[in-house]
């Protein structure tokens, strides 16, 4: 059953989203005790889900799985997409799907728990406050990971945020998203793949015909290399025989 979330009339007018970069002075104290470590497979899964998204979807959101290390660092090791519909004034999440997926993941790896959520796109949008409010009921102090799959500024910007409410008495003034330090963990092979992602914008996955064409081209290239190698060997054999002398 989908969960539909919409801001109240008062919060629409009085609760904007405040976004602070990690370089700001305000972030120094907030991010001192919060940081995130993200495995490369998480980024690849998010990018893959964005390419496979429904045609009408502008962005993809989902759940982050991992653990909180003793020093307070949130270690993100896995993720899954949560179907959702989003409009200007409300967000609908498939909560049943989310809970079923988490239960399945938890059976395989009980050490991985919900640590936050992700979205594709640059920065934090107004709808993000509603989604973050839902995940705040799922886990204490969730992080929000954004992956700019649209290459808004020329590269795949990846950022992590924590959120808190700015209030004056009983009146909520704004949702405060604070950027926190992010450590992207990659092996050498992962760095190669990520560099390709940063330099390539793909609107769709290649179809079977495109894949076959690419495979044939690679096969022709290898065949030509083998032919050249065999020709070189034959030339060297004849050259050796030419200069052999009878005993």
UniProtKB/TrEMBL annotation:
It holds the Pfam family JAB. GO terms for molecular function: metallopeptidase activity; translation initiation factor activity; translation initiation factor binding. The lineage of its organism: Eukaryota, Viridiplantae, Streptophyta, Embryophyta, Tracheophyta. This is MPN domain-containing protein. GO terms for cellular component: eukaryotic translation initiation factor 3 complex, eIF3m. It comes from the Eukaryota. Residues 36-167 form the MPN domain.
